[in-house]
Amino acid sequence: MLLSCFLTLSIGLAAFCGDRLLDFYTNKILRAFIDNATHGAVGLLTWAVVVVSLPEGRKYYIFSRLVDVILCGFAACAIDVDHITKPFVKSPNIKITKTEWLTVLCWLLSAASISHHIRDGTRRGLWFWPFGSTSPIPYTMYVTLLCLLPFAEREMMILTVRSRITVADILNIQV
Questions:
Q1: Which is deepest, 81, 100, 113, 168, by most CB within 10 Å?
Q2: Which superkingdom (predicted)?
Q3: Per the domain annotation, does 63 fall within a domain?
Q4: What residues contact 98, with CB distance under 8 A and at least 6 apart?
């Protein structure tokens, strides 16, 4: 419980520090690196909270808990490989429906993706293809959402692993 609280606070701190670092630099390459590193740190910490707060006795991981935490950090970074246009990978609603075939991997990738999109949402809003963008997320809401995300992920993951419900079932999507 204490580790979970510490990691949750670390999510907010990583986001805040990464955002403040961006204020100090104008070099586009350095800013892109800082932004991407912050996405990775937030994704990594998000999955770390999920992993440490899961109940014992079930295999809630793909490779190992540590490797999965690192994988989530890399996945959160990989979303920005384009940095030119907004292809389908920038739309959270499409990504969620394409990953239901492996329950644990689905939740790992959704943690990476959603944390990434929430961070980007403070500047550009959330982009839902084909509907367009929302207005930018207020900063306090952004940090709060990042800190609540791993707990929502954990609860949904436990529900889907226990009952074999897919993400498509939860979202009522016909595949």
A1: 113
A2: Eukaryota
A3: yes
A4: none
